[in-house]
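hiii so my PI (J.) wants the whole complex modelled not just the main chain, which honestly fair. so below is everything: two entries, each one labled with what it is. i double checked the lines twice but i was tired so who knows lol
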Amino acid sequence: MKFKTRTLGSLLIIALLLILAACSGNGNEENGEEKAEGSGKTSNQKITIFQSKVEISDQLEALAKEYKEETGVEVEVWGTTGDDYFQQLQIRLNSDQGPSIFSVQNVTEAERLESYVYDMSDEDYVKHIAPGMELKNNDKIVGVPYGVEGFGLVYNKDLISPEDVADYESFVSTLEKLKADGINGLGLAKDAYFLIGHISNYPFSLQEDHYEFIDKLTAGEVTMAETAEFKEFGKFMEAIKLNTPSPLDVTYDEEIGDFAAGKSAMIHQGNWAYGMLSDFDIDFEMGMLPFPLMGNDKMAVGVGSNWSINGKKDEEEVKAANDFLNWLSTSETGHRYIVEEFGFVPALTNIDSGDLDPLSQDVLDASNSGETIPWAQSYYPANLVPNDFTPAAQEFFLSKDMTGEELIEKLDAAWKNAVK
Amino acid sequence: MAKKKNMAWYILFTAPLLLIFITVVIIPFLMGIYYSFFQWDGIGANPKVFVGLDNFIHLFGDTRFFKSAWITTLFTILAVISVNLVGLTFALLVTSKLRTANAARTMVFMPYLIGGLILGYIWQFVFSDVFKLIGVVTGLEDVFFNWLMDPSYALYALVFVFTWQMAGYVMIIYIAGIQGIPNDVIEASEIDGANRWQKLRNIIFPLLMPAFTISLFLTLSSAFKIYDVNLSLTGGGPANSTEMFAMNIYNEIFGYGNYGFGQAKAIIFFFIVAAITLTQVYITKKREVEM
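here's the output for the full assembly
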């Protein structure tokens, strides 16, 4: 009898351990099965996409469905987290559960992910990328641009005309006038890039060579506080703080909603905002204007993000990922999605941009005429905006007495902290 | 033989737990210590450089870490006091002969069942929209404004939400403690003419000491380690004024990409939490009385 209980006991332990082992081994087993199937028929190869643009998540899922219908390959789109995208990507890559396709924002990020990004220089689809728009790391092409994007002052044509915001004086008097009328002159939002990230580009981009300037800044040879563009930028920010409600409790949704409802005359946004604006019934015309820092009349245009392939995946998956990018950049459905659904201004030469929404049209016009300034943020130290610029900007908007000059000093300190 | 049988049962029940504990606590902890001696950006395939104790030395020059330590301490003190005060008050209320005692008990416990993240987002809405509205309607704009927009009030908001979450839980512990006090002792004190306060101070509190030990330990350690409410309610903001220990470590590792340095912070953090909670357990244990 005793013997029996003991056997029973050990049997139970073994059973439990087996269950545990099965549970922990589950993930791998699934992968194994997929691999086995994948080598038989490529159509069963599943690919996963993880990317940073919240605005296109829904559309991307729809695209995944169409891709499955056309080719039979399943594409899983992972939910996007927004501001902490890069951290999430890093966690997933480290635990070997990374996606097959991910988005890389700029050169700095590509450098950090050097060991992961797949060299696509020999692939067919990179031939279609507009000259100079590809993402390169050590002369290897590692990313296909999403599209060309631009940001600036998105304005309500009923309330603002271009000469109202042509330079500092007119900009300030317009804000003051609108404030007196009970309208928010310029809407920002609390998200890192909408609060300070994008708008902080201008003083950098207006430098003769912003790469050189940033290198000097990092080396400590120049400071923002002693540079004319930044001094004026400080004055602009002061005017914004003085004449508009605090952006710190405004979400992106509210910023867009207020503009659509006519409560804000301008918002600092990019052409991507049209995706959300089109959900509203808007009874006014809108357009995009350059931010008039130092009388600037050129739009800030750049590449928002790039599709990259995870080269650490097995061959089958890399191939399937390549097929997907190829399809996206050459097929009709792919083109339709890029232009119509994502609302991107295409950075591929084989796409006819067709009818664009008004904001994208303004960006494309600027881009075609060459009247643009670059996005300096692509060359910012990694994570500078959420880590260091945002707290500084929050402090600025919170404190009534903090001047624009002090803001620039804070940004100087923030930069030092980011590159130390 | 009987001993062996017991052993088998013992293993049967502890082995699975032990296995889980080792894989999710012990091994990551040891790995963390290992990584703290390296300079590494946290990306698997990138090189790790051995730097010995440099990360720990470097730590003493990190003012943001010290600021975060101070905020966490302040938060913990406020939170421990308010959670236990509220929890104990509710426990005393619902064990008295209130007619709604059962309903009240359930209601107070309920917030604990909601995850900290969701709770944080709910209260973010309350603070940023409801509070502002109340302020405008009642005219008490000095009290009812968006607390999350003010560096010091944001901390109070955190304490408030944390109390809301934890008070119900410690209340249950206190209720168990109070119900464990034999009635005859209390009756005896009543016959001796003790008033409410004397009864509370001289009979109930000493006999409640084990419950105090547990509650203080739980609130102390979870307040120190708070991350979820911190993330969803304030996100460390405004301007890093509510960046607690755990968030500071997360930002160091994933925001700035200093994996090794962040791990060094985490090790120090572990020792601080361990030292403080163990001291607390030691002190309150000594005050527990045997019946």
